[in-house]
Amino acid sequence: MAFELFSPELQKLIKEKGFLEPTLPQKIGMPEILNGKDVLIIAPTGSGKTEVACLPLFDKIHKNKDKPISMLYINPLRSLSRDLLDRLVWWADKLDLDIAVRHGDVSQKERAIQREMPPHILITTPETLGAILTGKKMREHLKNVKYVVIDEIHELITSKRGIQLSLLLERLREVAGDFQRIGLSATVGSPQTVADFLGDKTKIIRAELEKKYDIRVENPKPKSKDRIIADDLAIGPETTARLRKLYELINSHKSVLVFTNTRETAEVLSSRLRQFDRELKQTVHHGSLSKEKRIKSEQEFKKELLKSLIATSSLELGIDIGSIDLVVQYLSPRQVTRLIQRTGRSGHRVGEVSKGIIISGEEDLFEASVIARRASKKELEEIKVHEKAMDVLAAQVVGLCIENYEISDEKIYRIIKRAYPYRDLEKKEIIKLLKFLSDLRLIYLNEGPAGLKARRRLRSWNYYFDNLSTIPDSRQYKVISVIENEPIGNLDEGFVAEHGSPGEKFVVSGRAWRIIQVDAQKVFVEPVEDIESAIPAWEGELIPVPFEIAQEIGRLRRSINNGKLEGFNVSSAAEEEMSQLIKKHSSSHIVPDDVHFLIENYKDFIILHSCSGSLVNDTLGRYIAALLSEKTGMAVNLKIDPYRIMIQSSAKASDVKEILVKDENIDETLKEAISRSSLFKYRFLQVARRFGIISRNVDYDRINLNKIVSQYENTPCYEETLREVFLDKMDLRNTKLILEKIRKGKIKVEIQEGLSILGELGLVHQFKEIMKPRMPEKEIFLTFKRRLLRTRVRLICVNCGDYSLVKAVREVEEQPECPKCTSRLIAAISKRNVDAVNIVKKKIKKKELTEEEMKKFLTIRRSADLVIVYGKKAVVTLAGHGIGPQTAAYVLAKMQPTKEKLFQDILHAEKEFARTKKYWK
Mean pLDDT in the chain? Predict the structure, then answer.
């Protein structure tokens, strides 16, 4: 038995802990680790993976009396570190080993202690490893490292953080020599890739057989009471039925973790459950909330003070937050790996079944059913690794130069080539990067007998520490409605960069809006009813649906159309719903599936039905849009989902079909189209920040991005941006496969007029869960009028200066008059302008005014001139946001025949102010 291989001291502790016999991962993993093998352990959540890695290593350190720091435990989340410390400190204390946590939140005092008295075991993150490698004392301690454990390795290697870690491990190897590497993961779609990433001698240990998952798809049907509740909650009966089902599941279980795909859905679900039952103990948990609020929610959930947490991916990883007996996924999780990772949070203890329910409906049922089936068969998605990321490499090269006063290009190249993502790096590529870094003045390059050499300099330190994190800084923009002149939500910087042009339409806070202007991290908008061409504000949060899943959904559609549905763990209501949807669609149009594409027209939309997944449809959509734009000479609006490409254009459906069947150079077309896109420019901004070209705190709307992009064309920065966009947002390989099948006739493309049921769902389905009832134009205008009449203004008598009063516009008389001197020369100004009274009194007393005071007085006097002529109409106009005397005079000069027309003109002037405000500065 594995436990018998340990020292007597550790065996005694194992008995004290009550571990009777090892779990499967422990049984087959511990002997390999004790033998010094590099291993990747793939085992379900709750199967004791942490102990698999740590107990053998703790025992080795204890027996061999290894010097600190002898072991690094690297995990992707700071929040996991404290949890791990609590879990491991008991074992370490009993074996006379010191253990500590080191990350960005650790105090300077703790860091100083670790420098002087390092622990045997250090729990840290990739970013912090990068920081301590450059410290003289800490690097001395790191020379003793013999073991490195990487937890949740699957979460790291698909991102640039993983690339960074692969290079950091090779830098660590330069300091410590070879060390044992252990990777831990619950779900991996490409085990060999992960093993190779960890090290070329890594042995894969799969211990997944014991974990059982009970996952089913449910489609609650609306009951009569749901229709009544739907009116109260202002949502559709289908959504109400899903909400009721969720409420019932939370109440019938002890502890329920609910996952949604976006922060917006999580917030909406929580608020509507609160309307449903104010006594229900539940709250939300997502990345936009403060750290304090997230920790408080986790603790309350763990103590069972909360019955449910409604979360996004923020709770996917292994933080121990209590005994969860059910995981609910609200709508499809979009990927199999996500579903298994999330469902594994329930039944967390060894031997327990992880129970999960996907609450789904309408078209989402197809995706949920396929993902649930694939999860039951452990058919996971393949992992995509960033190959040769030059921005990450740049920072690590500078790090190597900081560590070594002089280092040859040969040595740098040798170290980098050992890292899996850079195994195919060519010498000329590293030389090009070194020259680029030299041009950026981050390193020196000298010609000499040893070839090119790099030397550190002060600027390099600042650059390196600014780029310890590869996670892009994303700022939030406040969305301001010009109707209420109040914030109505937030948008991420990336969304604003890609979709933030005036005239663009998007959905936030349950309504559709049109952008008027973007200025100083604010987005000024007005409400619109055109949902079809709006972009969801949470688009960037959505996990892409893979090609293989979308293709299987196509096959599922085809099977249902042929009267078959087998091998899917779905409720009878869900099966009936899918059958009815296909039947309804097939009554007017062919069913788009894995071997049939459908093109249909609706208004100025062309809808191409393609069961090819998010990335293929994005790639194909951009390719089609580029060629249509070239043909028509006009811009093409594009909206995609995993099953449709929706194009808004003056082109015809036949033009789209012609592009699909024609053999064009897709690589060059896409490269040219992408390099001109907002997506490319925003990604270029992020990459340029990682290269140190642009400061991390610069707002993208304050710089001339076009000029900077043009300036750095054909540099490693430009090339890295293209590489990143194609990896993260495109799937060129499968797009070419689809086009080849179309051209060979293996996929039939048909054009049909009119909007099908699947086409209609594509135009509006993304918003159905969160949309509020449509606000009529009349109500929008009434809201604006109410806001304007409630606005409080300061009235000042410019004649005597003794009268100053703040009141709401609706309370102002038709012809304001000073109660002190009866003058009608009354100015209406902002209530915040408290200096105005002193300026007026100073002028009346004929005291000398400063240039700034005279400027303010003239504005006050012009306001009073308008009020004496137009009365209350002038006060109403001057209360408009951004409307001064000059604009008010222009509005009032129109002599509106009705009050309604005056309000319309004021609203128009406010919009103009929002649109042109940024140019006034």
Answer: 85
Helix (H) or strand (E) holding 147: strand 147-150
Rounded Cα–Cα distance for residues 69 and 142 (Å): 6
Q: Report the pLDDT value the prediction gives residue 717, as an integer from 0 to 100.
A: 94
Q: Give the residue among 515, 507, 537, 523 at the shortest CA–CA distance from 774.
A: 507
> Cα(76)–Cα(314) distance, rounded to whole angstroms?
12
Evaluate if residue 451 carries a pLDDT over 50: no
315 has a pLDDT exceeding 90: no
Indicate if the pLDDT at residue 350 is higher than 60: no
The pLDDT of residue 921 is above 60 = no
- Burial class from Cβ neighbours inside 10 Å (0-12, 13-18, 19+) for residue 886 reads exposed
**What amino acid is encoded at 173 in this protein?**
R
Residue length of the chain: 921
Find which of 69-73, 282-286, 470-474 is predicted with most confidence, using mean pLDDT.
69-73
List of long-range contacts for 236-242, beta carbons under 8 Å, 24+ apart: 236/768, 238/361, 238/362, 238/768, 239/768, 239/769, 241/361, 242/330, 242/359, 242/361
User: For 878-899, what is the mean pLDDT?
Assistant: 92
Domains in the chain, CATH or no CATH each: 2-206 (3.40.50.300), 213-376 (3.40.50.300), 390-466 (1.10.10.10), 476-541 (no CATH), 590-767 (no CATH), 778-919 (no CATH)
Which of 610, 616, 613 is closest to 595 using CA atoms? Answer: 610
What is the rounded distance in angstroms from the CA atom of residue 100 to the CA atom of residue 111?
10
Please name the helix (run of DSSP H) or strand (run of DSSP E) that holds residue 670, with its range, or none.
Answer: helix 666-676
Q: In what order do the strands lie in the sheet with 748-752?
A: 637-641, 644-648, 605-609, 596-602, 748-752
C-alpha span between 654 and 389 (Å, rounded):
40
CB 66 within 8 Å of CB 122: no
Residue bearing the bigger pLDDT, 82 or 806: 806
Rg (CA), the chain: 32
CB 329 within 8 A of CB 358: yes
What whole-number distance in Å separates Cα of residue 510 and Cα of residue 527? Answer: 11
Please list, in sequence order, all residues whose beta carbon lies within 8 angstroms of the beta carbon of residue 292, skipping any fewer than 6 positions away. none
Helix (H, G, I), strand (E, B) or coil at 170: helix
State both tokens at 348: 């967390």
Q: What are phi and psi of 320, to 5 degrees?
A: -80, 105
Q: How would you classify the pairing of strands 213-218 and 354-359?
A: parallel
810-843 burial: b if 16+ Cβ within 10 Å, else e = eebeeebebeeeebebbbbbeeebeebbebbebb
Tens digit of pLDDT for each residue in 35-59?
Answer: 999 999 988 766 778 888 899 999 9
For 496, 520, 681, 693, 704, the CA distances from 707, given in Å and listed in that order, are: 19, 20, 11, 13, 6
What pLDDT shows up at residue 534?
63
Q: Name the pLDDT band for 263 (thresholds 50, 70, 90).
A: confident
Distances (CA, A) of 778 to 212, 481, 783, 784: 56, 16, 9, 10
SS3 at position 788: helix
| Residue 406, beta-bridge partner list | 455
Q: Is 53 in contact with 33 (CB distance < 8 Å)? A: yes
pLDDT at 62 over 90: yes
The DSSP symbol for 202 reads P
Strand bridging mode 180-185 / 147-150: parallel
